[in-house]
Structure formats: structure tokens, C-alpha cells
Amino acid sequence: MKYNKYGKTEANVSKVGFGGMRFDTKLSIEKNAELLFHAADKGINYFDTAPGYCSDQSEDIFGVALKQMRRESFYVSTKRMPSHGKNSKEHFDLIKRSLERLGVDYIDFFYIWCLRKPDHYAKAFTSGQYEALQMAKEQGLIKHIACSSHQPGNQIRAIVEDGKVEGVLMGINILNFPYRWEGVEACGEKGVGVVAMNPLGGGMIPKNEDKLRYLAQDNETPTEAALRFSIATPQINIALVGFTTKDQIDMASNIADNAEPITKAQLDKITNNVGENMNAVCTGCGYCLPCPADINIPAYMQAYNLKQMFGAGDDGMKKYVAEERAWGILVSSQGHASDCIQCGQCEEACTQHLNIIARLEEMAEWEKDVE
Left, alpha or beta for 140 (phi > 0: left; psi -120 to 50: alpha)? Predict the structure, then answer.
């Protein structure tokens, strides 16, 4: 296993992190806890969970395992949303609750969870969450304050430049990284840690390997290529992978052992390769902004990529758009697809010459039931 520093902290973390949201809940808590032991044997020392994961069993599974591991041999992280508490006391009590479930004396990284737009970050302060995290840090109950964001790169930059967090957990994979890359660059400039979640696109990449063959090098699958991208990109400190089996742990660990760092030239090649093989897929460059109707066009085009890349039908897109509007990248848009005034300036600025207006019309139909 390869290791590096988490931002400018002293934490020496494994390039592969154990994501605790994909346990097989049909198995016992004790059986699932064996996965953490196997990961530790492979050199993985960063373990991430949250209340609510896996029918709210994940923190308990972690607790069974972590109590049997040397405390100095691992880093553990968990999360809470600003909306989970009404004041600093409630948030402080939630921190203590996670400590109890995890069976540890302190939590290494505590994430302000699921930031989807600037208002959510602001609520971390107005709800008393950040105050509670500071109190917990002063008492030695947590070591580092970080955040988990589903926002576009420019909004992540704004959080990083505010100087309140030491790390950002964000969704980055081989297909969507341009959409959040400005946030990654901001983290590098400020010495803030970068943890990449959803390296396999929430399972979309393994499910569509036949359409993504172009991503892979010789003797690897598209899934392996996607893992290699997140693991070997130097700007990413940790590739957080959700594990269900020991074989999955072995695959990610082997890639980490053998992958060479990805260079800037290789990043550019990957971007071009996606464009050449899927020339109608939005790369999220953002040249289409600003929009006079306050539509986050890159976010909508990223969502539309599901149809473009994988041929999702209307029913699938309606479900996906509803999820993204509630929890994902579409939350960041003030305007809805139906607000498009068809001025055409986005299409004029688009370097890929995408038919943005027509796509927004389709998105508006899928979005009707969730507006």
C-alpha cells in the first residue's frame, strides 16, 4: 500500500480508503467487521463511515472491528449534516454518540456532511455545528474538521478559501473530474486534504463496462481503470472505495501497489479520450456560464450524461433527476431546466458544440414531477 499526507496534517493515510456504505446487510455485524480486518492486513488505514449507512449499521460494524485494532494503527472518519442538530449542544451530543458507536476515544476526521449548495455550508455555522466541532476538537474528541461536498468546483473553492476545513470529501471519478477540478486545485493551493468518493460513479462504471472499454489500458477492465485513476492521481490523497467483499479490497489494494502517478499530460489525455469516444458527453468545463436564468448548465449536462453515456430511458432519467435534485449536483442550480429562455449564449460558448437548449427541454420534462 502507498501512503501520503492528508493535506497539510500529519496524518499519513493510505491511498485507498475503506468506505463503509456498501456492507451486505444480510450478513451479521461481526461478519461484515471482518472486512475491516482484511483491509488493515492489506495496509489500508483510513476507514470512513456515517450514521445511516447500511440501514444504520455501518458505525456499529466499525465499532466491532475498531475496538479490536490498535488505535494508533488507523484513522477513522464519520459525518453529520448541519440539519441534524438545532444548536451546538445537540451537535455535540451527536459527536459523542458516534464516539460511543465507533468505540474510540477520538475521531480523526469529522465531516460536515452532504453540502449541496452554499446555504448548507452556512447552516453549519448558524445551527451550531461548527461551534460543537470546535469544542470537540479542543477537548481532544476529534482531530480534524472537514466537509463532504457534492458541489461544483467553484463552490468547493469558496469553502476551501474560507479556511475552516482541513479536508474535502468530494465525488470525483474518471468521467466527471473536470466538473470539480477547480475544487481539487483549490485544496492543493491551501494544503487541504482531498478524498475522492464514488470512484466508480456509484456503480455506473462496473455496470456499463462494455460501453467504457476505451477507458482501459491493456490487461485491465474499465472498473480497474477507474480505480487506478482515483488512486494514482497525485492531487487526490485518498480514493474512498465502498467495499462489500474481500476480493474488492484485494483489487483496489493491488492497483494501489502497482499504479504509477498520473501526470498532467495523462489527465489531459483522459479528458480528450472521453471526448473522442463520447463526443456528446459534457465534460463540465463551465464555459457555458453564467446563465441569465441562473441555471447551473454544467450540472444539468452532467446529469444528462447518464442518458448520453448509458442510454437511460425516460423512467430511469426521471428517477435520477429526482435524486440529483434532492441530493446531488442539481441542488446547486438556482434555476430549473424549465427556466431556460433559449438565448443561445451557452451553445455559442460550448467548446463541444452540444445542443444544450434541446437537452434542457428534455430535462424539464423529467424534472416536472420533482419541481
Answer: left
Beta-bridge partners for 194? 168
Please give the Cα distance from 122 to 136 (Å, whole number).
20
Give pLDDT tens digits for 131-159.
Answer: 999 999 999 999 999 999 988 899 999 99
Integer Cα distance of 231 and 236 in angstroms: 7
Neighbour-count burial for 186-221, b at 16+ CB within 10 Å, e otherwise? bbeebebbbbbbbbbbeebbeebbeebeebbeeeeb
Amino acid at 256: A
Which residues, in sequence order, are CB contacts of 362 under 8 Å at separation 6+?
A: 304, 307, 317
In angstroms, rounded to a whole number, what is the distance separating the alpha carbons of residues 1 and 313?
Answer: 41
pLDDT, tens only, 204-219:
788 888 888 888 888 8
Region 297-316: mean pLDDT is 86
Cβ atoms 66, 35 nearer than 8 A: no
User: How far apart are the C-alpha atoms of 280 and 274, rounded to whole Å?
Assistant: 10
